[in-house]
Amino acid sequence: MISKLGEKFTHLFQKYMPNAFVFAIILTIVTATGAYFWLDVTPMKIIISWYDGFWSLLEFGMQIVLIIITGFSIALSPIVNKGIDSLTRYIKTPRQVYFLIVFIGMLLSTVSFGWIVITCVLARELALRVKGINYPFLVALVYFSNGAWVTGLSSSIPLLLNTKNNYLIETGVLSEVIPTSETLGSNLNIAMIVLFVIVAPVLALIIAPKKKVAKELKDMLKANNQTEEVVSIKDEALSTKLPFKTVSDTLNNSFLLQLIIVAMGFTYIIYHFSTKGFNLNFNIMIFIFLIIGLLLHKTPMRYVISMKRASSNISGIIFQYPFYAGIMGIMLFTGLGEKLAQVIASVSTIDTYAFYAFIAGGFVNFAIPSAGGEFAVIGPSIINAVKEIGVGLPQSEVTSMISRASMSIAYGESLTNLLQPFFLLLVFPIMGKGINIQARDVMGYLVIPFIVFFVIQALLVVWMPL
């Protein structure tokens, strides 16, 4: 019954959900219209705010591009392919793949948001080797599996709260940092981790499509007149050599040159973690992926070829990220986001503030699909409301309330990713390569997980002790 309901939601999304870029355009118009009718701002102010925000995610967008192609490059190495071949000796049925992908994906995402790339690679390769997998459903599961990032080491809101002299302290919203023991190490967050790592894989099995005729990756490739790369990277590198010995070919295929760079890279990686602790940000992650890729591909020419293959499907990220940044600009520079947070905060009580923070995080995420950016817009208003509610209480209790509200915003922000296709842009460059697949083919499968997790998470943020 539940799997049939998932298929019905998928049919509805296929019928009504537009392309991800059209979704961004519609969201831009809705946000601009909301700012115009709700706030005392002129159309020109809205357009200027849109433009000013348009370029604010360029660094983030470039980081996403690099983390995808450097991670995909590693996946194209012979050693990784051999490892996946070995794994398929034990994973032989679609249901085993569904469970494994969600379980591993959730674990990986607790380490870093960007490690969804590894889950994508594993899922695609298993889809090529295991018969009967419904590939659009598998893509949905990969997207779903990244939700646990909000509970882990790369969760931006708790990391911000624990950063000395952050903008909340500088503006007087907070008087001191809130340690991660109050956020990531709280009982609430541990319960969320259990929800993601234990409950989510089981839920994947419950909602798995029951149709005998599955939309398999191999069939989708054939239908699109595509085939997986048959020429190995090593063979393609050798084919670029001239028929006579040259210095250029010697340099292009030199293992020694690449080894020197790899040695320099690993030296810095060791230095980074020995001096800064387990500080795993996007930049160091990209650097690690790059150095590992250089090591696995052995020569400069092989690495160049691997990166060329890995970069063939990233156009969506390059041109769509600025449009979402423009939406964020409207929310931020017109005051729309702050106004919305104030309205939500005004109806909060000591019993309901966490739930309303959860709702606010989820709602604003449609316009600002960046946890850090969203918290900058609505966080101060929510925290000030919590401080007013907590007047007369001990400071330690108020701090706990602020921690709960902040994490509630984070959980809501992460959850509503299941209803909007923005971060599918991380998944499609790898899993959509060579096939015709759109957000509408995937998003319907995520409605039931959204409903289930909304109910459980709402109960946890309100009732679970910190």
Describe the protein's architecture and organization.
The protein is mainly α and 466 residues long. The protein has one domain. Helix content is 70%, strand content 0%. The protein has 24 helices and no strands. The protein has helices spanning 2-16, 20-38, 43-54, 58-75, 78-87, 94-111, 116-129, 135-145, 156-161, 167-170, 187-207, 217-223, 233-239, 247-252, 255-276, 282-297, 300-310, 315-333, 336-346, 353-364, 371-389, 395-415, 424-431, 447-463. The relative contact order is 0.17.
Give the topology, please:
Elements: H1 2-16, H2 20-38, H3 43-54, H4 58-75, H5 78-87, H6 94-111, H7 116-129, H8 135-145, H9 156-161, H10 167-170, H11 187-207, H12 217-223, H13 233-239, H14 247-252, H15 255-276, H16 282-297, H17 300-310, H18 315-333, H19 336-346, H20 353-364, H21 371-389, H22 395-415, H23 424-431, H24 447-463
- Tell me about the biggest sheet? none
Q: Considering DSSP H and I runs of 4 or more, what fraction of the residues is helical? A: 55-70%
* Average pLDDT for all residues: 86
Which radius of gyration do the C-alpha atoms yield? 23 Å
Order of helices and strands: HHHHHHHHHHHHHHHHHHHHHHHH
Q: Could you say which overall geometry the principal axes of the C-alpha atoms support?
A: globular
Helical run tally: 24
Q: What percentage of amino acids are in beta strands?
A: under 5%
Strand pairing plus helix content: what structural class?
mainly alpha
